[in-house]
Amino acid sequence: MAAIAGTPRARALSAALREARMASGVGQRELARQLSLSNTQLSHWENGHRVPNVEQVAMILAAIRVSADERERILDLARNVDEPNWLTVGMNGIPQQLAGAVECERSASAITEWTPMVVPGLLQTPDYSRAIMQASGLDHKDIDLRVMVRIGRSEVITRNDPVHFNGLISEAVLHEPIGSPNVMVNQLLHLVKMSSRPNVSIRVVPLRVGWHPGWSGPFVLYDFPDAPPVVHFEHYSSGAFVPTEHDVSEYRKAVDKFHEIAINPAASAELIEKIAKEMERTP
Length: 283
Known about the structure:
Strand content: 5-15%
Number of domains: 2
Mean pLDDT: 87
Shape: globular
Largest sheet: 7 strands, mixed
Strand order of the largest sheet: 1-7-6-5-2-3-4
Helix content: 40-55%
CATH topology of the largest domain: Endonuclease, Chain A
CATH architecture of the largest domain: 2-Layer Sandwich
Distance between the termini: 64 Å
Number of helices: 13
Number of strands: 7
């Protein structure tokens, strides 16, 4: 059975093929000529409109002469590209899922994210992201690269055809000291600024409202114009993409529950700005 285009794993595979070719310095038309393919067919594989099989992926990787490790990583995506659920365990699996998340962000029509402990990644300032990574003990060079990637990812919210972003943030996030007080103040003011964009909705879920689905953990719900929706879970050293209709439906119900208990967007912006000003006054 042919693999379905548009799934997170298929999106990650297309991105991996595109980036590997570009890193090799080989143009798309030149590679298509070498492989006796049409440029249109190769373009479909690289932009995710079609999914190549394992043999076709191996042929491409051989032609552009990728390293052994990179070859195995991309082939692993190709071998399992038709599996609907995508679970990785261990830090080595996170880079592959990061590629899938980036492609989902780029092609989504709407993103809904619930975060109980930190600001959603697409709304983080560079200094806030850096503070989290420094606290995680990452290498300095690795931190610089990841911060740049994070900045690039956030462009899906500010580009000419921006994705609609629905951020649901626990009130605890606004008080948790990540980085210096100045880092936190700037982060909170950035949230206020972003909330003024017509494509961004930020709602604070207050504390002391009792149990709600969010206590089960963070999640991201992606909606696409050309593919079924998918839920993404990312934890410290594991992650999963789940496109199952039942699971997506349950998380939509969770979002509905959040909207019942969350502060409305205007009041949320006022609360965030108030907390930022209180932090500024604190010696």
